[in-house]
């Protein structure tokens, strides 16, 4: 599933494509083929202009001129982009918004797992009530991470995956941050000392910063979206391969229904 760096790359590309700042050309004049979301969700956006493209965690937000917004979750295979002609859409497009200038914002999603929903002004706080702070916002501090860790006996990897401690961090980059901080993914969160959490805090920001730069290069056009394509992974997907630090074998274990990769020698 796309994580924060990939979703941010999509947001930046979409923002650049709609660079007229929500002028007349960004007015939504039609919508259709809304699968699996209902047509009614898309129809509520007709007549409004797209004024901004934001991101919250792994969610894309298309801001509309009256304060309403469209929330898009790409899920496993979704990609949100601007098509040059609303009439020419790939067979894998599951939702689209025709713009006044003839272009279209399309959700290209081969497996039809993505979601789009329409929301009224003022609903954002409630909508994202369970979502933690953004990793590069001031609200994501060492004190915040320490408080979240000390409040649970769950393994630290599962805490990071819940999105409550920090938004947008998923399986790939949680594993990479834990490796960089030399923390075993099964270590109970509440048992981690503040210095070790400080190392994890720094690693989360470092890993996501590098991954965001990589994702912008990897995402070029619809259908060419590669999760972590140019990011130099140290452990993820490298089961049985030598650790880049100690040359020991990277291992894999199941955690929370996902595969966790780690080095048993480097991560304690």
Description of the structure:
The chain is of the alpha+beta class. It has 2 domains: 4-127, N-terminal domain of MutM-like DNA repair proteins (Alpha-Beta Barrel), CATH 3.20.190; 142-262, Orthogonal Bundle (Helicase, Ruva Protein, domain 3). The chain is 27% helix and 21% strand. A 4-stranded antiparallel β-sheet has the order 1-6-7-5. Strands 2-3-4-8 form a 4-stranded antiparallel β-sheet, with helices on one face. β6 and β7 form a beta hairpin. α6 (171-180) packs across α7 (194-218). The longest helix is centred in the last third of the chain and has 25 residues, at 194-218. Residues 221-225 have low confidence and may be disordered.
Largest β-sheet summary: 4 strands, antiparallel
End-to-end C-alpha gap:
27 Å
Secondary structure tally, helices? 7
Binned strand content: 15-25%
Determine and state the CATH class of the largest domain: Alpha Beta
Enter the CATH topology name of the largest domain.
Answer: N-terminal domain of MutM-like DNA repair proteins
Instruction: Give the tally of structural domains.
Output: 2
Rg measurement, Å? 20 Å
């Amino acid at each position: 599933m796309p994580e924060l760096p990939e979703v941010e790359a999509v947001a930046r590309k979409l923002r650049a494509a709609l660079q007229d700042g929500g002028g007349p050309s960004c007015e939504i004049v039609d919508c259709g083929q809304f699968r699996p979301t209902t047509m009614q969700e898309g129809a509520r956006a007709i007549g409004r202009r797209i004024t901004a493209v934001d991101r919250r965690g792994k969610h894309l937000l298309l801001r509309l001129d009256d304060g309403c917004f469209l929330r898009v979750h790409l899920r496993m295979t979704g990609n949100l982009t601007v098509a040059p002609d609303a009439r020419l859409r790939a067979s894998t497009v599951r939702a689209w918004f025709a713009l006044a200038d003839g272009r279209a914002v399309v959700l290209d999603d081969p497996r039809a797992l993505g979601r789009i929903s329409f929301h009224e002004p003022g609903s954002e706080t409630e909508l994202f009530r369970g979502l933690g702070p953004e990793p590069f916002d001031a609200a994501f501090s060492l004190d915040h991470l320490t408080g979240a860790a000390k409040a649970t006996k769950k393994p630290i990897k599962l805490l990071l995956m819940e999105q409550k401690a920090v938004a947008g961090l998923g399986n790939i980059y949680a594993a990479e941050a834990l490796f960089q901080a030399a923390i075993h993914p099964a270590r109970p969160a509440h048992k981690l000392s503040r210095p070790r959490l400080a190392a994890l805090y720094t690693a989360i920001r470092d890993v996501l910063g590098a991954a965001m730069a990589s994702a912008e290069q990897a995402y070029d056009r619809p259908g060419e979206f590669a999760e972590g394509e140019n990011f130099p992974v140290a452990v993820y997907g490298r089961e049985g391969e030598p650790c880049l630090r100690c040359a020991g074998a990277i291992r894999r274990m199941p955690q929370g229904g996902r595969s966790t990769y780690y080095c048993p020698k480097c991560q304690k």
